[in-house]
Amino acid sequence: MGDARAIRTDVRFRSGDGECAAWLLLPAGMENDPSVPIVVLAHGLSGERSQRLDVYAERFAERGYAALAFDYRHFGTSTGEPRALVDLGKQLEDWRSAVAYARTVKGVDPRRVILWGTSFGGGHVITAAADDPRIAATIAQCPFSDGLTAVMAMPKKTGLRLMLEALKDWTAAKLGKPPVRIPIVGSPGELAIMSSPDSLSGYRAILEASGLPFTVPRIPARYVFQIPTYRPGRRASEVWAPLLVCVCDRDQVTPAAKTVALASQAARGEVKRYDTDHFDIYVGEWFETVIADQIEFIERHVPARTSTSR
């Protein structure tokens, strides 16, 4: 396919009561192949497209795929108040809206939409693919697969403290007061959504690799109420398109064993395992290993060039 850089443009699309902001990347030479597949990408919990989603999208575009990397409502330059609100229903709606938009992009084959999600977004793409039988393939990277398992893996004291903050935030929302916020990452023992030994350093590494200043996002604590009942990995058995699940074996954020067990239930599921922690695969050598596996997967199942366009 060559390594010519893709053309990247800023786009926006409607979703629910607002708009999602996104980057649309079109591969070089697309004018010679007017019907290409498209990879739709979104991040994990509180993640924004500026945090290395463009790097993934560019790698796919270099191989002849269009790519759409978007921010959920309430994040990045998408609309939505309060800022940094993680709302499960809205994010799943944003995925549906992103796929619908991707299918309208000129030169894109609407029958060949590929989903790519990581961490919390990795759970979302399993749900989205189960709901939409027209999806051509799905990549779930270190996915949030089972909320109940994730909660049980937390120190009990941390879980109780998070629930208390969630109750405070829920009450504040009912009274029209500003959100009660909790940090996304912290050191072990600190009050944070993710406080595994690698969480703080791993998040810092992603920001540094993205050229962004180090700040810890704080989200409205009501998100915690959604964790135990969100179990998207259970829907892997409903995904009929090829599904690649990239698992970090030392993951303490989204426990690996449960993810592997659920992924094995997919009709056309494939599991790739890496001897890493949750955050390792976004940067450095592990990123190179994982992205190569993901490219091999989509080129095998959804070739960028069809036999009629060569």
Which SSEs are present, and which pair or pack?
Layout: E1 7-15, E2 18-26, E3 36-42, H1 53-62, E4 66-70, H2 88-102, E5 108-118, H3 120-131, E6 137-141, H4 147-153, H5 156-174, E7 181-183, H6 199-209, E8 218-220, E9 243-248, H7 256-263, E10 269-274, H8 284-301
Parallel strand pairs: 3-4, 3-5, 5-6, 6-9, 9-10
Antiparallel strand pairs: 1-2, 2-4, 7-8
Organism: Streptomyces neyagawaensis
Pfam family, one: Hydrolase_4
Domain Serine aminopeptidase S33: 37-274
Structure description:
This protein starts with 6 loop residues before the first strand and ends in a 9-residue tail after the last helix. By secondary structure, it is an alpha/beta fold. An eight-stranded mixed beta sheet has the order 1-2-4-3-5-6-9-10, with helices on both faces. A two-stranded antiparallel sheet has the order 7-8. The model has no long low-confidence stretch (mean pLDDT 94). Helix content is 32%, strand content 21%. It has helices at 53-62, 88-102, 120-131, 147-153, 156-174, 199-209, 256-263, 284-301, and strands at residues 7-15, 18-26, 36-42, 66-70, 108-118, 137-141, 181-183, 218-220, 243-248, 269-274. It has a domain at 7-147 and 229-301: Rossmann fold.
What features would you highlight for this structure?
310 residues; alpha/beta; Rossmann fold; 8-stranded mixed sheet; two-stranded antiparallel sheet; 8 helices; 32% helix; hydrolase; AB_hydrolase_fold; hydrolase activity; Alpha/beta fold hydrolase; Hydrolase_4
